[in-house]
Amino acid sequence: MARCEVCGNDYDKAFQITMGNATHTFDSFECAIHAVAPVCSHCGCKIIGHGVEANGRMFCCASCAHAVGVGAARDRV
Question: What is the mean pLDDT of residues 32-57?
């Protein structure tokens, strides 16, 4: 069994995510999102989809990107 690095649960179905040189262990997608999902630069929510990247910043949607002056951002083409 492996221990989740977020909640501490020792779980037989834990999984690992490797990002760069770091490997993280979680017992649920909820804990994985809490620990490693990027955060919207405007509203602060966790980005669990593709999001929008502009000027080196991540946004959850085009609306948040627009709010900080990224006019070219689009959620859909």
Answer: 95
Q: How many Cα atoms within 13 Å fall on the side-chain side of residue 40?
A: 21
**Contacts with 3 (C-beta within 8 Å, 6 or more apart), sequence order:** 9, 10, 11, 14, 25
The structural domain count of the chain equals 2
pTM higher than the cut 0.70 = yes
Does 76 score more than 80 pLDDT? Answer: no
How far apart CA 43 and CA 47 sit, in angstroms, is: 10
Same domain membership, residue 31 and residue 43: no
The closest alpha carbon to 47, from 35, 37, 57, 32, belongs to 37
- 4 and 18 housed in the same domain: yes
Residue 58 parent element (H or E): strand 57-59
